[in-house]
Amino acid sequence: MALPEVSFSEDGERRYLHLGTPWVQGSMKLSEPFDIDLEYVQRMMAWLLFTPVTSVSKGHAMQLGLGAGAITKFCHKRLRMCCTAVELNPAVLQACRGWFKLPPDGPKLRVLIEDAARAVRDPQWQGVVEALAVDLYDHEAAAPVLDSEDFYRDCRGVLSEHGCMTVNLFGRSASFERSLGKIAAAFGEDAVWVFKPTREGNTVVLAQRTPTRPKREQLQAQAEAIEARWELPARKWLRVFKPATRALASTVV
């Protein structure tokens, strides 16, 4: 399979990753290389709403699709988690290390050059991941590369009992409802939460291994703790984040 050419561009404040097209496939603020720049990528961290702040650093984070390494860097540097990233294109890893300040592999960080569908079926990952981020698009960024019910079931299999998966989808795309339905079929409808689309159309979907329905005041307190500790806009998330039951009622898989 031919893999796209990897390049970057800058505007003075930010560096952007490109995979053979002008589409932005990742971003880094040059003055804050270990923070998360893009709004939808920040929302991929919404699993923090369901995880006690004091236990985050004990968990294992996995990212399928490295991009510019924003999630992996944040989880490794800021959250102090054990991190595994899975990326198919070796040139993307080289770009992350050369242009986007991804640290080298070590005891708490490793990047696997592997197909993501194969990785989530690997027995070594079963039941051990607290936070799974799925952002798998090709160079045209038209629809997720892996988007079957079986794939999402395999993703569920790597999660710990209280683990969460977050997925980047295009909420204004015709494929969104089909993708949402497949996630619900794999995890159960009561396990799925959905953000409103960003201005760019990215819609983050969250699925829990073990469904919970915290009270609003519990989520508010957790969001405030997240903001205080890691400066993510978690209180804003609560205004655009809700259980997916209503959206799923009209979904056709």
TrEMBL record:
Gene Ontology biological process terms from the UniProt entry: polyamine biosynthetic process
Record-linked SUPFAM superfamilies: S-adenosyl-L-methionine-dependent methyltransferases
Top-level taxon of origin: Bacteria
InterPro entries in alphabetical order: SAM-dependent_MTases_sf (IPR029063)
Gene3D superfamilies reported for this sequence: Vaccinia Virus protein VP39
Presence of keyword Nucleus: no
UniProt KW keywords: Polyamine biosynthesis
Descriptive protein name: Spermidine synthase
Organism per entry: Comamonas serinivorans
Organism taxonomic ancestry: Bacteria, Pseudomonadati, Pseudomonadota, Betaproteobacteria, Burkholderiales
